[in-house]
TrEMBL record:
Gene3D superfamilies: Zinc/RING finger domain, C3HC4 (zinc finger) (3.30.40.10). This is RING-type domain-containing protein. Residues 133-179 form the RING-type domain. The keyword Zinc-finger applies. It comes from Triparma retinervis.
């Protein structure tokens, strides 16, 4: 597909999306300012078109992709025509070479950093006894978000996911310090002063 315009993605659609394609399962689409990434293949802005209202169309060759409809063919083109909405999702059509069009939809995947930024914030005085995560012992910094549980223990956001076993779809886990049940909705982001 020839591009009819240069892709200059607004920040509103940049991100990682979990894409569900009817009868084809789930895959990840990454939208960056000057390229898209689909099945480890980068599609640069010259190969993509951005239409009115955040409609994006692109076609990509996927090496190793096969289909039941084309015998002895390895490596196929896949095409998308999708429309992003304001809520961080999209809908549209997907078509693989040799097959008919299928409905597809995608939801923006939220990163740990985005989850931490959206949490309510507590301000705490940094003390020598509380200068690092109580699980991994990494010192608090601007790049490692600290969170506090209802039981009063503080961890970096990475340890909440790994040690407390809170990762989607789970929203509840256990505090590794006192074994109290913790819930994602009760975590507070800590800013040290």
């Amino acid at each position: 597909m020839e591009a009819s315009a240069t892709l200059s993605n607004p920040d509103s659609i940049c991100g990682r999306y979990e894409v569900e394609i009817k009868w084809n399962g789930k895959h990840t689409l990454i939208v960056k300012p000057h390229y898209l990434e689909w099945k480890s293949q980068k599609i640069f802005d010259t190969e993509t078109s951005l239409g009115e209202g955040n409609k994006v169309e692109f076609r990509v060759f996927v090496p190793g992709q096969t289909t039941e409809w084309l015998e002895n063919v390895v490596g196929l083109f896949e095409s998308f025509s999708i429309h992003f909405d304001r809520s961080g999702s999209f809908r549209g059509t997907f078509q693989r070479q040799g097959e008919g069009g299928l409905e597809c939809s995608g939801e923006r995947a939220v990163s740990l950093e985005e989850q931490a930024a959206a949490m309510p914030t507590l301000e705490r005085q940094l003390s020598s006894q509380d200068s690092s995560c109580s699980v991994c012992y990494d010192a608090w910094s601007e790049t490692s978000a600290a969170v506090e549980t209802l039981c009063g223990h503080r961890f970096c956001i990475g340890c909440v996911v790994s040690c407390c076993r809170i990762n989607p779809p789970n929203t509840k886990g256990v505090c590794p310090m006192c074994r109290a049940e913790i819930d994602v909705k009760d975590l507070k982001r800590v800013e040290f002063t």
